[in-house]
Amino acid sequence: MSWGRERGRAGAPRAGGAESGRVLLLLMAAAARAGAAGRRRARRWRRSRSGSGPGGPEPRSPPAPDYEALPQGAAVSTHMLAGAVAGVMEHCVMYPIDCVKTRMQSLQPEPAARYRNVLEALWRIARTEGVWRPMRGLNITATGAGPAHALYFACYEKLKKTLSDVIHAGGNSHVANGAAGCVATLLHDAAMNPAEVVKQRMQMYNSPYQRVMDCVRAVWRNEGAGAFYRSYTTQLTMNIPFQAIHFMTYEFLQEQLNPHRQYNPGSHVVSGACAGAVAAAATTPLDVCKTLLNTQESLALSSNISGHITGMANAFRTVYQVGGVTAYFRGVQARVIFQMPSTAIAWSVYEFFKYILTKRQEERWAGK
């Protein structure tokens, strides 16, 4: 049944959109305040650097170490360790919301799996299926997120610096940030895609799988090894624009809120949340198609569709055939609510660990 024919749910997208909009406005206001504070700090910093004062020029103190650029000789493992911790934290903390998002993107949900909003979905799932039901599949997600994000952040940092030096020597290039994010996504999705397939099948309503290995064996036996990468091209088609928008928005906001790139947790949280919200809303139609390819909903397959659904073009046609235009935006509220704190957590944890690891390495060098 399409959304247009569900009177009980007709107001949900508008209510969810308004709720998400209010949250985004609050974040933008916080970003403006943080930006003003950052500019004031920058002016004070410039005045202190100029040496002007009643007592004459003051001796300049040595500049604070730039944790954004790791010290010479620092191992790539620093970025990989920080990225792995950030990825596991991001996925684990927000996993119940991700479960709701997957269900809300279902093209033809059963009556018991139709939800008006995220909070109602969490309440009903916990009440009817058990408190721990929204956490099913968390172990495989954490297993995939660690190495995927380690590769992701290490590749991003290396390429960002290399491309920025080529495009805009000595400065920051938004094109370099976007390109580095796109290339890093290739490695991230290659490591994460099998975990995504298993996770989403376990998240669906009435999923027959209780354990991860049960799902892995069933998919391998019934659909072959290729099923674990059936949605890979669609995942890339979604994640490449998502990450390009995400990284460019994040780096742009960092320039406004934290121009000297010092360790500033508030700016990392606000920039990450805003970047995640914008990128998530823009790429929701592609995420709906990815969910269809990963889950291969039996109800969709029974709607005069034979065989497995493969490829993004086929998924787009199927989504439109089953649910119309509105089906492309199913779960947009849950996706935005999931991505805003997820990206905020990922960036704040990543920047924190990068700062700590860099600081410790510099202290070791200073002690030599």
What does this structure look like?
With 368 residues, this protein is mainly alpha-helical. The chain has a single domain (69-361), classed as Alpha/alpha barrel (Mitochondrial carrier fold), CATH 1.50.40. It has 13 helices and no strands. The chain has helices at residues 12-50, 77-93, 95-104, 118-129, 138-167, 174-203, 212-223, 232-257, 265-282, 284-295, 298-301, 312-323, 332-366. The longest helix has 39 residues, at 12-50.
* Count of individual domains: 1
Q: Could you say which overall geometry the principal axes of the C-alpha atoms support?
A: globular
Helix/strand order: HHHHHHHHHHHHH
Low-confidence stretches: 1-17, 49-67, 69-73
Strand content: under 5%
Q: Could you state the oligomeric state of the chains shown?
A: single chain
Distance, first to last CA: 69 Å
| Structural class by helix and strand composition | mainly alpha
Q: In the CATH hierarchy, what is the superfamily?
A: Mitochondrial carrier domain
The helix content is 55-70%
Features:
368 residues; mainly alpha; Mitochondrial carrier fold; transmembrane helix; globular
